[in-house]
Design brief:
195 residues, alpha+beta, PH-domain like, five-stranded mixed beta sheet, four-stranded antiparallel beta sheet, 39% helix, Bll5862 protein, transmembrane helix, transmembrane, membrane
Length: 195
């Protein structure tokens, strides 16, 4: 009886709904490894067989504060864990504390198992470069519009452009800053990518 209580206490679990229609995605950190149930599929990945973890910041229109962990097994299979869960057709609820606790504990158990997983944060380097290039082109276009508005004396238009640029920089700036490609260690998780 004592052993089953200790084993139950050693399990850390997390669940979220990726869509309104489907079943919840359920994960548990057991003594044997990462247990997962997604739809009709399930599996158990020993911690030392996890080959990669990528943490990122992935806001969506319904939830501006959403984080994601992509976990890859040595076989190449991959699962995603999100920090939000669908509640209704118009509500996606944050699960910040549960997500953070689960991810921190996953890394602790991987470290205990002697994992050699590749740990990265943010977007991939190619995707990040594409984002930066798009932002550079947009900045040049906005600057051209601002100069044109000032040259023809359209000050209301210039104020609109400045306001839009400030709002855009505030919204997109956090995404770009948090998702800068980096490596991290099992002992030092990137705080900007945890709720």
């Amino acid at each position: 009886m004592q052993g089953s209580k200790a084993e139950a206490a050693a399990v850390t679990s997390y669940a979220y709904k990726a869509s309104l229609i489907g079943s919840a995605h359920r994960f548990a950190l057991t003594e044997q490894g990462l247990s997962w149930h997604i739809g009709g599929r399930s599996g158990l990945w020993p911690y030392d067989e996890i080959s990669a973890v990528r943490l990122s910041f992935r806001p969506v229109s319904m939830q501006q504060h959403r984080f994601r962990a992509d976990i890859t097994h040595g076989s190449g299979r991959r699962i995603a864990i999100l920090s939000t869960s669908w509640q209704t057709a118009a509500l996606m609820a944050p699960q910040d504390n549960g997500f953070r606790a689960f991810i921190v504990e996953l890394h602790a158990r991987m470290a205990k198992a002697g994992s050699r997983a590749v740990l990265t944060s943010g977007l991939g380097r190619t995707a990040y470069a594409a984002v930066l290039a798009s932002l550079a082109m947009l900045t040049v276009a906005m600057a051209g519009l601002l100069i044109r508005a000032l040259a023809i004396g359209e000050f209301a238009g210039a104020l609109f452009i400045l306001g839009f640029a400030a709002l855009f920089a505030w919204q997109v700036g956090g995404f770009v800053r948090r998702n800068q490609p980096r490596s991290y260690t099992l002992a030092r998780l990137p705080e900007a990518l945890l709720p």
